Structure formats: C-alpha cells, structure tokens
Amino acid sequence: MSQLERLFPRRSFLSKLGIGLTAGGAAVGASGATARAQSDAAGRWQPTRHGLDDWLDQLPGKHRFVLDTTTPEGFGNALAFLNNYFNVNQNAYGLQDADLAVVLVARHLSTLFAYGDAVWAKYGGPITQRTSFNDPKTKQPPTVNLFNAPGYGGALPNRGTTLDSLLKRGLQLAVCQVSTRGNAAAIAGATGGTADAVYNELIANLISRSAHMVPAGIVAVNRAQERGYSLASVS
Q: Taking 80 as the threshold, does the pLDDT of residue 38 lie above it?
C-alpha cells in the first residue's frame, strides 16, 4: 500500500470524529476545550471568553471604544482624538467620564510610549534608533516620554493633550507584550545589557496602573471588539 493509500483512510476516520490535521498529520486544537467556539440558545456563533481578557468587561461605561495604534504619530494623534471624544461626550451628550470605557492599544512602535520617563531618560538613544522620533525642540533623542510632557502644543501630533490627562479621565492602555520583548532585545543589543533584564525594567516602568500588559496588541484589538468595543485605527 502506498503512503497516500495509507493516509486517506486515516483522514476519513479522523474527519468523522471532527478532528483536523496539520500538514504533518498531527491533530490540532486551539487550546483545548476552552477554545472551542460557542453558540447561544438560537445557535448563533459566540466568541469564546478567556480570563486574560476579563479586564475589558470590568471597565464601567455606557459606551465602549478601543483605538489601535502602531506608530509614534498614531499614538499622538490618538491622544488628540480621545481628548475630543471625552469632551464631546460630556458637552453634547451630558455624559460623565465614568460613562465611557476607553482603551488605547499600544503595539509595534507605539508601545514605547507606554513606558515612563525613567525608561526614556536611560534609553532614549536606542529607542530613537527604532522610532526615528526625535524631540522637536532639541532635535535629539527624547529624554522623557514626549506624549506625557507639557509645553509642546502643536509641535507634536497630540497637540498638547498629555497621556496623563487622559489616564485621569479613565483611559486604559493595552500594552503589547510581544513588542515589549522586541524593544527589550533591541535596547539590550544597543547597550550591552540582557534582554530579560531590560524587559523587567520596562515592565516595572509602565506609565500607569491603568496600563495592562496584554499578550499581544493585535489580539487585544480582536478581544475588545468581541466584547462590544467599537474600533478606530489611528495613524
């Protein structure tokens, strides 16, 4: 019997059991029973819930909004747009800040702006090698988190809206762990440190307790939408 003849009966048998095969012939499942798709009483598909994402449901709010950012410019623009979002909901709709569940996703190159000033003071040079985003006043690598620094006004895309001012209004950050590890490896390579040590340093210097380290920013975007957040991508 040929290899194909031996393989097809096995596929037929497994298909009856509802088990898929990889190219190598191994049965696959996303992550066991907890990753199986769910259906409601009417048979409609429902996303599976995972404990890692439950913080999204713990945010109070009558409206849910998630902004996805991947670049320094996108992160800054998102801050300006969110300032408008909070203000218009308050002034035109009579809502309070607590009525709005708002999450800003920092992934890829925008992840760096989820770290506090101590990180920028120490690693501004290596960070700028990744972002090419210099301080517009000095034309040099920043020594502080520019999107949390006052006094820049229209010189930066956030147009004077600081990250801290929005965090005080209830903004939450979803910080990409994949990018954080990549940043740590790049900084370690530029400074002669170790990736693990720099990673721990970055984690210890997240800009706020409202910053949630998520397994991956792109996954957080997906999970937020599955939990009822509307999405805007900002560049």
A: no
